[in-house]
Amino acid sequence: MGEIKRRSVWEYTPRQVDIESDILEKVLKERASFAPESYTADDVRRALKAETIGFEEFKVLVSPAATPFLEEMAERAQETTRRYFGNAVTLFTPLYLANYCESRCVYCGFAAHNKIARMQLEDEQITRELEAISKSGLQDLLILTGEAPRKSDVEYIARATKTASRLFDTVGVEIYPMNVDEYRVLQENGTDYVTVFQETYDPERYGELHLGGEKRVFPYRFNAQERALLGGMRGVAFAALFGLDDFRRDAVAVGVHASLIQRKYPHAEISISVPRIRPAVGNENFQKEDVSERDLLQIICAYRLLLPFAAITISTRESVKFRDNAVKIAATKISAGVDVGIGGHDDEDSESKQFDINDNRSVDEIRAMLKANGLQDIFTDHIYLGGNND
Fold this sequence. Notes:
By secondary structure, the protein is an alpha/beta fold. It is built from 14 helices and nine strands. Helix 3 (55-62) packs antiparallel against helix 12 (293-306) and helix 4 crosses helix 12.
């Protein structure tokens, strides 16, 4: 049989609207100009002494030359975090509504080609889940689905966010990328922010990893945060999935991407996540790039110095010890009471989960950890001043 002809990663589908942004070209240019091995210890010392960290200093701090200076980076990152966030750490939890997926990502447990039990919560089930989560006291919720626009359509997600907004102060979504008008529908139904993982910022590698589905379109995914802001969202979150490609180059791209969006939309609340690839159904033989905890902490510190006001989220993909350390230094948002299956936070069916988690602690256990480290757990950092969503 001949080789399967796949849609170019640059070719939009009929459903996808191109907003013709110039940010992608700028990010790819900065990523391409980053030569990780070209920096020296003197470059790092100069970067750490700089009053303001720009793109060039950021690249230095992401490079291997900065690894021996991690302690100094952590000290400055911690000082910056305390200056702008105090001792506050926001708690949130995710709720997975569905694991149906039309994309063929070679590393993901939800991928369309994986033989897993597919599920989707009905509206009544969503309400019960939301009520159960709200009893924990949490006020920040992240709603997730697989990448299946035909199954988990805009109206379905909007109903869920509208219900959630009655119980939670802050509601975010981590779903398939949408057009501006679709994001506006979600915003009008209680959604506050949008999270999109670009996965990798190398278009060629991106095409190798995403074999089918609308997710294969690289620029459409890249511009999701900008479309969300044009649709009225108050916040957007960025990430690469470290381990899919050269993590240093992807870290640079994430930082530049978030910075350029911040400059273009100064009112936007910016957040960055730092996920590493985890074991999942179907990716047992996936050859991931090595990203150590030390590497990840270096990236987190560099993000903090480039983007002092940005929230940094540390997920349950990481170990208890690492998460506890990250919030003491630079992370300002941490998940608690997490289950990555569909609904049922006591469901132990690993076949329905997107990936394996490392930290199973409850909300109370996370709160106790923060208190023990002199940090203040925050259930919401947003005061809603508008009318109700009924």
